[in-house]
Every structure is written in C-alpha cells, then in structure tokens.
Q: What sequence folds into this?
C-alpha cells in the first residue's frame, strides 16, 4: 500500500502513512511559470493499493487532485482510494435560484471519475454524499478532537447550536466529559444571547466544537457568552480551520486556545484527523 500526498495535505498524508505502516510515495509537484500544475510520482505503484490525499481548497488544488489521480491510474494500481480531508465547495450543496450550479455535486461527479472510493471528513451536508458516482464514506474528526481536549483537562464540550450537538456528544465521549449545546435567545432587535441549554459553566474549562470555523463569528459570540457566564477557560476546536480574513486574530483575542485539525494545514493544526481514515481503511 502507498499513500500519495498532495501539496496541501502533507501533514495528513504523513500521519496516515505512519498509522497504516505503509510508504508515502515520492512525488514531484510544482507549478509552471503560468501557474499550471506539474505532477510526477516517482515510486512504481503497479498492482498497489493506493490512497491519494488532497484537500480541494483553494481551487488550484482541485486540478492538482485530478492530476494526482491521473498519474496514479497510469500505473494500473490494484485500487485507488481518494481522501478529500476538506471538501472545498461542500457548502454550496443546494440550488437557491434557478440557473445556479450545485457546486458540491459538480465536485463529487468529477472527483469520482478516477477512483474506486472516496473518503471525506465532517462534510458540511451529508445529504450530498449521494451525488458521488463511487462508494463514499464521510468520517469525523470529533474523536481525535475529544482525545486532544481530554489532555487539556476540559470539563464540558458544547456545540454552537442544537443541530450540531451530535458532534459535541462524539467529542465528549472521547474526552470522557459532559456535553451540552448552546441555545440562542433573541433578547431584542439587536441582542442575542447564547447559553448552554442545561449546564452551569461557572469556573469550568469549556470547549466549543464545530465542523468548520470560517469568519469566526459563531465561535467568538459563543466564547463571549460563556465567559460572561463565568467559564474559567474557553477552547475553540474545529475540524476545518478555514479562518477567513482576520478570523485568527479575532479568535485568539476571544478564546484562550484555538485548535484545528490537519484537514487544512494551519498554525492551529495541533490535531490529526488521519486516524479516522486509517481506522476505516484497516476495517475495510
Ligand atoms: C454552520 O453550519 C457551521 O457548522 C459553522 O458553525 C459555520 O460555518 C461557522 O462559520 P463562521 O465561522 O463564519 O461563523
């Protein structure tokens, strides 16, 4: 078995190869002066089971993934699995107006062309998994996040809303701690309050877990409210640390610690989501 790592998924790929006890293929990936991508795989992958890992964000990495799939297929391997740790365009999963592209569906169709299976992690909307033309498995980084939070002595894990409380539950199981979800109440035209549904956070170390942090607005609001209710320390933990604009600086000001996984490589990537894929591949 070989793991082939794309240029934006090196941390994830190295950890996956380590967990699977297999080789990380030697690759040459570079850009021509006009920014087009060049890909070459130096190991011989004939008759091997190959796992390609590449996040499809930003856009240029989509092309790199297609070239990696093409280069791998050229060897006639025994099988190709494609891991897309952060599935870019996953949030555009519906048509809101006539004539709009359903971007997540377009991505699913194309990625499925040159692979036997696909793995994603904490994809935004699991409903769109049915758009893939090959078998697909959506895994979660919440167990890995929970283990990290346990090492950081977290007392309670909360999700920013009721809809995502299953994530908090999964992380809390791994952290052996309690969980809750934040409930938003509109106090007046301008003010909303977010507080745990049933738990007192006074004097506690609280972690807010989410699938993705983009602008940071959701987490910042939640952290401010938890601190106002007496939380001793607030940790923000997410699978996908997109961190648009000045989100990182604002989050660091609002939270005591901000961590994310290696689905997107960031200075905050203190947790690897590769174990979810390694476990699934070993069980297959
Ligand atoms: C919402 O559905 C997601 O789970 C996140 O809560 C959301 O995308 C976070 O966005 P932002 O960081 O911009 O508040």
A:
């Amino acid at each position: 078995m070989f793991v082939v790592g794309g240029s934006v998924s090196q941390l994830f790929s190295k950890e996956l190869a380590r967990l699977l006890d297999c080789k990380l293929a030697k690759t040459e990936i570079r850009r021509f002066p006009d920014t087009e991508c060049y890909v070459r795989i130096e190991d011989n992958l004939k008759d091997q089971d190959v796992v390609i890992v590449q996040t499809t964000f930003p856009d240029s990495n989509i092309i790199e993934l297609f070239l990696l799939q093409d280069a791998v297929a050229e060897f006639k391997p025994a099988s190709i699995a494609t891991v897309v740790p952060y599935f870019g365009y996953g949030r555009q999963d519906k048509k809101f107006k006539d004539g709009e592209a359903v971007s997540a569906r377009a991505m699913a169709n194309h990625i499925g062309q040159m692979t036997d299976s696909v793995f994603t992690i904490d994809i935004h909307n699991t409903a769109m998994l049915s758009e893939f033309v090959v078998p697909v498995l959506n895994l979660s980084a919440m167990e890995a996040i929970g283990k990290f939070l346990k090492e950081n002595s977290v007392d309670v894990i909360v999700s920013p809303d009721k809809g995502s409380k299953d994530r908090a539950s999964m992380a809390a199981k791994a952290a052996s701690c309690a969980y809750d979800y934040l409930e938003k109440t509109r106090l007046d035209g301008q003010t909303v309050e977010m507080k745990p549904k049933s738990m007192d956070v006074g004097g506690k170390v609280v972690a807010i877990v989410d699938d993705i942090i983009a602008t940071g607005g959701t987490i910042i609001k939640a952290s401010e409210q938890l601190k106002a209710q007496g939380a001793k320390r607030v940790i923000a933990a997410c699978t996908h640390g997109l961190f648009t604009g000045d989100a990182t600086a604002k989050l660091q000001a609002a939270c005591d610690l901000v961590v994310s996984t290696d689905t997107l490589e960031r200075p905050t990537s203190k947790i690897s989501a590769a174990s979810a894929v390694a476990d699934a591949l070993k069980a297959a």
The pocket of ribose-5-phosphate is lined by residues 160, 164, 210-218 (CB under 6 Å). The longest strand covers residues 178-186. The mean pLDDT is 95. The radius of gyration is 20 Å.
